[in-house]
Structure to design on (706 residues):
């Protein structure tokens, strides 16, 4: 009997082990997503196109410098290539979203890849600097058609909506990690052939190597088009995973003369109507409105960091080395943030995680602005990168999992367009703002610190991001009745986030008593403002369990324990969890503790194993309040049990469980008339609610005892 108490006392150790197992599940999540063949092929296509994008940036910069010997023109070559590639994102991103929502996304991607192939090939053949910039602008325009279609199609390739987050992680790792290394490495190899093999300078001609790199670049886009056309027909699928009502697309208004709008349903809306519907959807959907408001602040802060990074590093007295360290710190932080989002999402809802990430990024940026030393700046910049990376991935996940497929392309396009516009605008404006402040040198803790324009600019950007993050949080938060401090405590304690509802369990030795009192408690709580659900029929579906055991001829104790776990898992998934997620109060009798005590007493099974089985069956769901009906062990056992001794042992085990965890249990005297016991149960539940405020609930949920 002592091992029951030991098992309960070691709950914290079990939580730590379970947490470690959840951390290790990241690899399994990635494997499950990559096991989906259409997504795996699209991931490969993303790799090809991302390598081509980064290679094009380097290849075209190298090629344009060959067209002139002018030093000033060569210095502006990189900026010109970047500008002509980003400018289409400012102009044509909404058009790409409209095409993604109206036309077969697979066809859009094929055409865009073929256009990019032809344009890059023409750059090598024409050999004109003017055409290079024009063609690069058109390549960027084609990319703005390709990206929204790809992003909007990803959720339809997955088996479950909850895989969107992992898929986005893999996509960002490929785009901003592996592809960058591959593109830069390939460029270095190709351009280093001549010097590596000590070949004469004119062996390939003036533009030989540069043109070869551009041609290879174009072939990557051609390969992408062929793979999409022949190997990923699933990209044409739509609305595979319907989204909640809050993310559904708006219905198009019926045309004039269509009384019932039936003809309008059959007719596809025009591009202008789709654009208006997209704007109306953003304006009337708090989730999307908050998402875009939040990202505007985050991108503005990011642009401030980019534009101020070089002069800020000089103000710290570190020069180019400090600039390099800050650059590395922000990207290391972003990588940590991207990797940590799925773990945080198990403890915080995505809408809350998004707003909190932006607020923390803004506060960390304020620390960067006030930092007196490089070491402090490096830590703060890493935190900015981590929070910004987490917010970006969370935003993309919200679009992929909570926005209707028919409008997802437009929202993705707006998201991408805002990112480019704001970052570009902030990066260009910040140097002008910095120049308005005359530098001053002050002494802080004995160290000389240069106060120039970077400090107020970064401080302003940080405060702006924090303010916008609060606004976004208030717009998006779907759990306004739940205090955020409870979620933050779960993050600190590394526990899964609590559901919205409240779970009350009644445990005891006899199914008759627990069933009666559970029904009475549910009826009493129904007088309050919350919906109340009685999760199981009397005796916890014992009839179904008996039918399962007899039908399968299960005679062994372990087999019967597994069958009981299966019944409980079905009840939790079918009744309990959906009710809790909707914010209801769930009253359930004989949830876990009584079955554990019965099986341990009757079959002599190890309680630690039974607790592990129960945790697995219920998804580690535990009641907020457990009411233990304490009956006299001398009362004869109910029909079907072996003896009064069995009744006594079960009650003793339940009492040990309650004594080991008094914060979760309330023990109620179960002797006497049913009405008196019911009154005691009501008083105990109301007292527990008043004393603990479990999961944000207050005593006003209940009604006064009658």
């Amino acid at each position: 009997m002592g091992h029951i108490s030991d098992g309960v006392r070691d709950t914290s150790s079990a939580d730590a082990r379970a947490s470690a197992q959840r951390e290790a599940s990241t690899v399994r999540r990635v494997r499950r997503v990559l096991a989906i063949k259409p997504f795996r092929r699209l991931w490969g296509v993303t790799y090809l196109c991302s390598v081509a994008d980064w290679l094009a940036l380097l290849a075209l910069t190298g090629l344009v410098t060959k067209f002139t010997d002018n030093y000033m023109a060569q210095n502006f070559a990189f900026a010109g290539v970047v500008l002509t590639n980003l400018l289409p994102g400012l102009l044509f991103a909404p058009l790409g979203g409209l095409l993604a929502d109206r036309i077969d996304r697979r066809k859009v991607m094929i055409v865009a890849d073929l256009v990019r192939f032809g344009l890059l090939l023409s750059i090598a053949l024409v050999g004109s600097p003017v055409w290079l910039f024009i063609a690069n602008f058109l390549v960027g325009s084609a990319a703005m058609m390709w990206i929204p279609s790809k992003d909007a199609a990803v959720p339809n390739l997955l088996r479950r909506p909850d895989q969107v987050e992992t898929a986005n992680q893999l996509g960002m790792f490929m785009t901003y990690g592996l592809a960058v290394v591959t593109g830069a490495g390939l460029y270095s190899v190709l351009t280093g052939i001549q010097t590596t093999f000590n070949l004469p300078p004119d062996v390939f001609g003036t533009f030989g190597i540069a043109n070869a790199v551009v041609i290879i670049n174009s072939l990557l886009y051609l390969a992408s088009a062929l793979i999409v056309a022949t190997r990923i027909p699933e990209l044409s699928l739509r609305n595979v995973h319907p989204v909640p009502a809050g993310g559904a697309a708006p219905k198009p208004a019926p045309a004039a003369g269509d009384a019932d709008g039936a003809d309008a349903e059959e007719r596809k809306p025009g591009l202008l109507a789709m654009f208006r519907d997209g704007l109306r959807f953003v304006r009337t959907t708090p989730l999307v409105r908050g998402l875009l408001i939040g990202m505007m602040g985050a991108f503005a802060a990011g642009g401030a960091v980019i534009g101020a990074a070089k002069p800020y590093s000089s103000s710290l007295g570190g020069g180019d080395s400090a600039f390099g360290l800050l650059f590395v710190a922000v990207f290391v932080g972003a990588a940590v943030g991207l990797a940590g989002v799925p773990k945080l999402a198990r403890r915080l809802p995505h809408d809350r995680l998004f707003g909190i990430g932006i607020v923390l990024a803004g506060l960390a940026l304020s620390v960067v602005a006030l930092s007196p030393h490089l070491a402090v700046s490096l830590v703060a910049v890493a935190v900015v990168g981590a929070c910004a990376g987490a917010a970006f991935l969370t935003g993309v996940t919200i679009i992929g999992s909570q926005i209707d497929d028919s409008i997802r392309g437009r929202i993705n396009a707006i998201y991408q367009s805002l990112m480019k516009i704001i970052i570009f605008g902030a990066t260009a404006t910040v140097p002008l703002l910095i120049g308005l402040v005359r530098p001053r040198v002050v002494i802080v803790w004995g160290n000389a610190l240069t106060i120039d324009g970077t400090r107020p600019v970064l401080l302003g950007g940080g405060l702006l991001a924090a303010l916008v993050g609060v606004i976004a949080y208030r717009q998006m938060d779907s759990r306004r009745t739940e205090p955020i401090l409870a979620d933050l405590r779960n993050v600190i304690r590394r526990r899964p986030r609590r559901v919205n509802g409240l779970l009350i369990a009644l445990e005891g030795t006899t199914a008759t008593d627990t069933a009666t009192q559970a029904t009475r408690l549910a009826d009493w709580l129904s007088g309050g403002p919350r919906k109340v659900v009685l999760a199981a029929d009397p005796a916890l579906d014992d009839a179904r369990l008996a039918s399962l055991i007899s039908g399968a001829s299960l005679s062994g104790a372990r087999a019967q324990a597994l069958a009981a776990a299966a019944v409980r898992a079905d009840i939790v998934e079918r009744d309990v969890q959906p009710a809790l997620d909707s914010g209801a109060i769930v009253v359930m009798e004989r949830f876990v503790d009584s079955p554990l005590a019965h099986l341990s007493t009757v079959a002599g099974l190890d309680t630690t194993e039974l607790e592990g089985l129960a945790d697995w069956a219920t998804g580690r769901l535990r009641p907020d309040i457990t009411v233990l009906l304490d009956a006299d062990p001398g009362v004869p056992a109910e029909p079907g049990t072996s003896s009064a001794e069995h009744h006594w042992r079960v009650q003793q085990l339940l009492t040990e469980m309650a004594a080991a965890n008094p914060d979760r249990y309330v023990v109620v005297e179960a002797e006497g008339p049913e009405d008196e016991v019911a009154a005691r149960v009501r008083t105990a539940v109301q007292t527990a609610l008043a004393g603990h405020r479990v999961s944000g609930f207050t005593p006003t949920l209940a009604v006064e005892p009658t």
About this structure: Residues 37-66 form the longest helix (30 residues). The beta strands are 440-444, 447-451, 502-507, 532-534, 585-589, 625-630, 665-669. The two ends are 39 Å apart (CA to CA).
